[in-house]
Q: What sequence folds into this?
């Protein structure tokens, strides 16, 4: 790396470190509160989180010089990579939330913070393994860190997408191609995370996925995991994948039977800078295929989910003027028709409910498709949900 670029990147890291110093008191208070909440659920998770908080606070910039393998590093080396990523995600999320609450120019500060925590992930997961812990049975770290290659490949692949539809398709393909799964379905949460709408599928009928409207109340396990938890633990509800060994015991048959769901993994699609979950990815290995999940996949799944979230957010959060113009251009009748289509009504059923002719309803549908720039009814309904026109 050139000295100029090296100096510039170090400046960004120092800028992020200065931000953490500036809000040190509040961050310390928030991290302690989260640590206490974690302790109510799992003492081991609290230990990992507290250890990483202490280490980061003591050494904000571990670059440009050697560091001895002190007690913190030795303990961190014994932690599973999944737990390190999970804890660093919690810490980073807290920094972003504090910035949004107190800094007038928070948006300009987020990238430096993201870069700092990216380097923390890299350094603690890779550098420590290579330089500080070559003795004993630390070789397992080296094998577990191979998922880094999958993350790089996935990120490079999804960034090629030029539209929302391409982004969704690339994400589904990437989850299936770069990880050991054969089917993938991508969902977006709407109505304050009470419903999941199908966006795209890979290895499964795409239109079948796009027709899905899943009320989370119908799946208690998923509803709780998505976020209907106690208020004091809402900060860390988003990150970790969910393994479901037998889908038939957790999901209604109307979702299990058409797809032959057996075992599956659900991955949150999360945006750290916003502190919110915008969707989820469902993965399996084909109809009727039961499998045991290897938890060494979880670090890659978490990173895939975050990369997908950052990519999709720019399409979901469309510019206000464009959304406003699109919503205003749809007539009340067109919106009514879209709502009925979203509920699964046919053209004839919509006509009967609205006391209109079937021909008139078809006209409203064609007009809505044109205004939403949608290829078919399914895409029109999905766009209407995404833009908040219906919900």
A:
């Amino acid at each position: 790396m050139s000295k100029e670029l090296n100096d510039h990147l170090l400046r960004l890291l120092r800028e992020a470190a200065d931000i953490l110093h500036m809000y040190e008191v509040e961050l310390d208070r928030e991290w302690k509160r989260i640590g206490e909440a974690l302790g109510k659920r799992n003492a081991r998770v609290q230990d990992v989180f507290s250890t990483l908080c202490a280490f980061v606070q003591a050494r904000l910039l571990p670059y440009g010089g050697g560091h001895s393998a002190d007690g913190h590093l030795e303990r961190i080396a014994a932690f599973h990579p999944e737990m390190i990523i999970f804890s660093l995600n919690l810490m980073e999320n807290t920094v972003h939330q504090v910035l949004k609450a107190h800094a007038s120019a928070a948006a300009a500060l987020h990238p430096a913070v993201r870069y700092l925590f990216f380097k923390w992930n890299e350094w603690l997961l890779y550098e420590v393994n290579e330089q500080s812990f070559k003795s004993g049975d630390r070789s397992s770290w080296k094998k577990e860190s191979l998922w880094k290659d999958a993350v790089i490949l996935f990120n490079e692949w999804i960034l090629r997408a030029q539209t929302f539809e391409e982004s969704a398709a690339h994400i589904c393909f990437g989850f299936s191609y770069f990880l050991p799964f054969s089917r993938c379905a991508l969902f977006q949460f709407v109505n304050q995370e009470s419903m999941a709408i199908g966006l795209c599928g890979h290895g499964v009928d795409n239109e079948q996925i796009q027709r899905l409207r899943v009320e989370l109340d119908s799946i208690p396990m998923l509803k709780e995991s998505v976020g209907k938890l106690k208020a004091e633990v809402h900060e860390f509800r988003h990150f970790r994948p969910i393994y479901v060994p037998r889908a038939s015991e957790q999901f209604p048959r109307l979702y299990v039977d058409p797809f032959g769901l057996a075992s599956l993994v659900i991955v949150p699609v999360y945006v750290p800078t916003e502190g919110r979950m915008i969707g989820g990815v469902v993965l399996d290995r084909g109809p009727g295929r039961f499998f045991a999940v290897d938890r060494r996949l979880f670090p890659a799944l978490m990173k895939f989910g975050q990369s997908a979230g950052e990519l999709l957010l720019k399409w979901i959060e469309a510019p206000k003027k464009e959304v406003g113009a699109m919503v205003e251009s749809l007539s009340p009748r067109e919106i009514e028709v879209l709502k009925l289509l979203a509920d699964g009504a046919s053209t004839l059923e919509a006509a009967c409910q609205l006391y209109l002719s079937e021909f008139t309803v078809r006209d409203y549908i064609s007009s809505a498709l044109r205004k939403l720039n949608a290829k078919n009814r399914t895409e029109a309904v999905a766009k209407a949900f995404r833009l908040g026109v219906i919900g």
In short: The beta strands are 183-190, 195-202, 213-215, 242-244, 264-271, 276-284. The two ends are 50 Å apart (CA to CA). Confidence is low (pLDDT under 50) at residues 61-69, 131-144, 228-234.
